[in-house]
Amino acid sequence: MERDSCVFYRSFYEAIDDLEDADKLACYNAIFKYALNGEEPTEKGIVSTVFKLVRPLIDRNNESYKNGLKGGRPKTEPEPNENPTETQPEPLDNPNEDVDVNVNEDVDVEKRERAAKRPAFVRPTAEEVRAYCRERNNQVDPEEFVDFYASKGWKVGNQAMKDWKAAVRTWEKKDKPKARQPSFSNQRSYNYDELERRLLAR
Description:
By secondary structure, this protein is mainly α. It contains 8 helices and 2 strands, in the order ααααααββαα.
């Protein structure tokens, strides 16, 4: 069967690219003669080896091409139900609809449901932040907080902010003064007057 075009994969190119020019040309010719005209190569050696590796893909593409000319994959007759008392599945409203289009559909539905339940983020005013900071009795500056996130497009990193109160609590932790660690010294404090008195008493 002759064809006007064929699929040439990157893996074919990468497998052939390191060969000497003469071998490379012979491999290209073998692939295209077979894919376009159905002519099997007679060459031996590296050409034969490469051809054996790429042939299954060429055959599969040619088979798909033939089926496409016939109107697609042949339809198979449904097997009769062995147990007539079993209920048959309800016919689809749209018979062309593929019920298994997306196997991850359940996961996507869960994500959409969670997103729908979560209230939409509303940017707080400086006054709302101030009231929350007073309630928490922290030292966060509301204007600085609002200005900072407004300049970032109300994003935390590269994600859209979901909860500004959580962001306030994070700032609160950063603003808490760290407890000073006790400093230890190897030096002793001496009462020099007492030392001098003892030395003179000897």
